[in-house]
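FAQ: What does the model actually see?

It sees only this:
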Amino acid sequence: MARATARERTRRNDESGNALVEFVIVLPIVVALVLGVMSFGTTHEQKLSLTNAAREGARYGATLPSSTPNWAGLVQNVVVASATGDLDTGVPGRSICVALNNGSTWSGTANAPCFSDGRPANEARVQVLVSRSGKLDTFFFSRMTTLTGRAVVRFEAGS
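And it is asked to produce this:
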């Protein structure tokens, strides 16, 4: 009886060593997954912030008369304020395009459409396109990506 107990103890000690080896093998994979999920979540939140900022800027621009001095600058300020820090000066890859089609000509930061929206050329509308660089990090690799947000709103304010 005493020998069986000694054998069981030896077997248990061997298995605890196996558990430690398995833990050491699995730990980097689990850490990489956790860091990847956290990084993806942060990047996705930034993308949503950019989309919301573009939408808020386009809505504001649609209600602001086009004859307002520095119309595009005012819309751009609303976009930056709505982005909760994701478009502040100095953010890598930051780009903000604001465009107004009054039904016949484009004006704004580029005096051209920010992007092709598939709408009729004579439709009065405001376009806002924002972008910035983002970074996806995991334990094993890192990748830079461009995050964008865009919005189109029918221009209602008139001149």
